[in-house]
Amino acid sequence: QVQLVESGGGLVQAGGSLRLSCAASGRTFSIYAVGWFRQAPGKEREFVTALTWSGTWTYYADSVKGRFAISRDNAKNTVYLQMNSLKPEDTALYYCAARLPHQSEYAYWGQGTQVTVSS
After folding, report:
1. Positive or negative torsion for Cα 102, 106, 57, 8
2. I need a labelling partner for 117 at 20 to 30 A (CA). Which of 9, 11, 63, 99 fits?
3. Which candidate, 65, 81, 58, 67, places its Cα nearest to that of 4?
4. Burial class of residue 76 in the structure, from the number of CB atoms within 10 Å of its CB (0-12 exposed, 13-18 middle, 19+ buried)
5. 56 and 50 in contact (C-beta within 8 Å)?
6. Tens-digit pLDDT profile for the chain (119 aa)?
7. DSSP class of 103
8. What pLDDT is stored for residue 56 in this prediction?
9. CA-CA distances (angstroms) from residue 33 to 42, 89, 99, 117?
């Protein structure tokens, strides 16, 4: 089992920045990839970005390319999401998720952290 806890959300003005953290515990050695997802009110959850635990690749949704950056600190078992040039449409509940090598989908999810961007 893998447990994930997000933190770092808050209220920020448009154009501002926030850094989200995702702390993993449990069987972290078995993690293959960690991703960030978000869900705005009345909308479906959408993919934001992901990386492999080994750091071999990262991937971003077009809507956040050039503004968001995902990174990891393996020693702390933590994945970060640096969000710059925030827009009101980035307002959502942000979740981190993890998947193991044999899984095709993300099986472990955190509770989410709210990001609100005011115009």
Report:
1. negative
2. 99
3. 81
4. exposed
5. no
6. 899 999 999 999 999 999 999 999 998 888 899 999 999 999 999 999 999 988 889 999 999 999 999 999 989 999 999 999 999 999 999 999 999 988 889 999 999 999 999 99
7. -
8. 86
9. 28, 26, 6, 28
Amino acid at 62: D
Give the start-end residues of each E strand in the chain. 2-7, 10-13, 18-26, 33-39, 46-52, 58-60, 68-73, 78-83, 92-99, 108-109, 113-118
Asked whether 61 and 69 are in contact (CB, 8 A), the reply is no
Residue from 83, 95, 73, 81 nearest 6 by CA: 95
Task: Show Cβ contacts of residue 60 under 8 Å, excluding neighbours closer than 6 positions.
Answer: 48, 49, 68, 70
- Write down the pLDDT at residue 91: 98
Three-state DSSP class for 75? helix
Q: Which two tokens stand for residue 26?
A: 């449990």
